[in-house]
Amino acid sequence: DGFRVIAKAAINIWKSLGGGEKSAEALLSQMKDYREYVKPYNDYWVDNTDTLI
Questions:
Q1: Structural domain that includes position 23
Q2: 31-46 tens-digit pLDDT
Q3: What is the pTM of this model?
Q4: Structural contact between residues 4 and 28, judged by C-beta atoms closer than 8 angstroms
Q5: What angle (nearest 5°) sits at the alpha carbon of residue 25, between those of residues 28 and 33?
Q6: DSSP string covering the chain, please?
Q7: CA angle 34, 40, 43 (to 5 degrees)
Q8: How many structural domains is the chain composed of?
């Protein structure tokens, strides 16, 4: 599963940057929500117009 490979890599990077176990779990939860288009990840996005705030 591609998601699992990406998630594992992201968690490894996160931990190598000093992230702890609890924050790694939170990151994984956010990644799962993004994959499932759970709010707020289901909002419409316009490239070159919308910005991250």
A1: 1-53
A2: 999 999 998 888 887 8
A3: 0.74
A4: no
A5: 35
A6: -HHHHHHHHHHHHHHHTT--HHHHHHHHHHHHHHHTT-TTTTS---TTT----
A7: 95
A8: 1
